[in-house]
Amino acid sequence: MRLLYLNHNYRFGGTYYRAMPMAEQMALRGHEVTLLTVSREQRLRARWSCVNGVRLGEMPNFGQGYSGEGYGPLDNLLRMVHAIGRRYDIIHMFDHKPNATFAGFAGRLRGARLVADWADWWGGPGGINDVPRRRVPAVGTFEAWWECKSKLWADGVVTISTVLRQRALDIGCPPERVVYIPTGAAIERIRPIPLAEARLKVGLPPQRQIVGFIGMGQGDLEIIMRAQQQLPDLWLMVIGYANPRVLDQARQYGVADRLWQAGFVPDGQVGLYLACADIMCLPLTDRAANRGRLPNKVLDYMAAGRPTVANPVGDVKTILEKHRVGLLADGDGFAPAISRLLDDAALREELGRNARRIAETAFSWPKLTEELQDFYALVLR
What we know:
This protein is α/β, with parallel strands linked by helices and 381 residues long. It has two domains: 2-184 and 364-380, Rossmann fold (3-Layer(aba) Sandwich); 195-360, Rossmann fold, CATH 3.40.50.2000. It has 15 helices and 14 strands.
């Protein structure tokens, strides 16, 4: 098959970590795959390369950040020219942003079938776009409409969570054209490393108690900071952009002296930094955006062989309950759950082993890609 993947994010961010592994797996199966994402460096020109068998196009980022990713004028123009100028069997659109969908519907004119990937809950109360101040309010109104319409008008829908699968059915997508395929775990890129070895390499005290977090989106961390107030020896490690807002929050809660903002860590070193934590955390307030998503971070935690403490929200609740890879905590229950794991080394090791095993089986990319390939065949029929 000739496949075109349209990702709205910058390279190495967000849904790129869903689109690129899918593309790589499809290339391994002999399909011809092109992935278009957004360049972090190129402002006015596209850059092309071949990565693990995938033809990767990094589109210019001029205007990319205006009122949300996906609105870069040069990016959108070049994608549409590409989609019209080449013939594809399947165009897989990762979420509904203009640069992930407009070129897809243009490519349909050349006979391509469209698969819409639903990876986040954007519109409506509690969605990602439910923010008090938006530079262009009309963008939020448009996206609330287009998020659903782009799924209804596609030939097939792939959802990252069971919650979004149900939402697709609720808006009228035919059940036979909707499939739930979660993101796979990066088991090759992230491997379990003994805690003492990792801390020695990074230069951390071996006895320090550390709860870890990774991600560019760093919301809801106040839940962990409240737990730190009850656990005076606990440090919070945040891997990702050193957000000043997070530091301000830590100061408000009086835990700034126990916040370690590790900053951006290259992909090849993520596993090493994750291994520095005794346990991982996934704080989630109960809102539509959190119920709909399957955060990449929980898959990274499992790949690293570390147990997770999380709120019982969306598919995260199901994963932790079904596979026994961590502890669920409501409200002020984070401190007792973290304390329990810190005090019970045997339980930490058991949950960590479970986590790695589930990452290698239920969330393995080869297994999930087999399901995706079968769905493509159904859509083409």
